[in-house]
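Notes from hallway chat w/ T.B., transcribed later so I don't forget. T.B. wanted the structure written out for a chain they're using in a teaching module, and asked if we could keep both sequence and structure tokens in one place. Agreed to drop them here.
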Amino acid sequence: MLKSFLKASRFRVIPVMLIPVALGALGAYVWKGEFHPWLFILTLIGAGAAHLFSNMVNDLWDYKSGTDIAAQGTEGAISTNSGFLTNGTWSIGKFKAVTWLMFAIAALSGVALSLISGWPVLVFGLAGAFIAYFYVAPPIRFGYLGKGYSEIAILLSFGVLPVAGAYYVQASELDYRALLLSLPIGLLTTLILFNHHFLHWEADRQAGKKTLVVVWGEQRALRFSRILMFLAYASLVLCVAAGALPVYALLALLTAIPIYLVYGRLSAHNPSVAYLPLMGASLKATMNCGAILIIALIVQGLIQ
């Protein structure tokens, strides 16, 4: 059951949520001298459950809308869902039950943290829940609009909200440096989600899912993907310049090299399978960059 749950929830990508939570908490430790281990653990549990809820509720609505079925039936398209609904591994009822269990865990964690750290924690949680549910759920469906709303939603969900929220849980106040610190990891995670659309963009077009890749076309979207990568690493330099990160955090710039090399191997038009290395490189860049930033903040906190 545990193995099935890990696959159904796509647990392997949970670090993209836990990393920004860690960065926010470490920001409070470095800038304010505040760090409460039990609050940090509860924040990790709540944010992690919220992320898994988001993964699963997106699968539910993409399955209901026919997007995932279209991806299976489109030649060359690569499905990125768990496959538990499209392959009939779990019934819809079972999938829904586990999905809403994750929501319940996230909600209870948020309420507990708000009672300890203050009501603004609920604002962060409710904003995240709103984006997580309506990313593909009607009537809003951020992921289907194709006007950049999807990318903004991801930047908020995996950057601004978890970093600033985790900082607030520890310090019970806000700081502009937390916003700056959210940009590198938030933009890199946005890059992952943007690049994954290349794997099945033609199937998305058939299903009426208007991602920016569908709206702009492959060539223009690929140019934007490169720009997004540049912005992520430029924001890292900005964080160092503004004092949100120590100068040795610039070592994280090295994580841009592998993904930059992958871009160099892509042409204007590519089969879906050609984007798998780009997806892998995007994920590794986010994980490795996040890990270096975490280490940099820990070192800064210990030596200052």
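Follow-up for T.B.: The domain at 1-303 is CATH 1.10.600 (Farnesyl Diphosphate Synthase). Might be a good example for the class.
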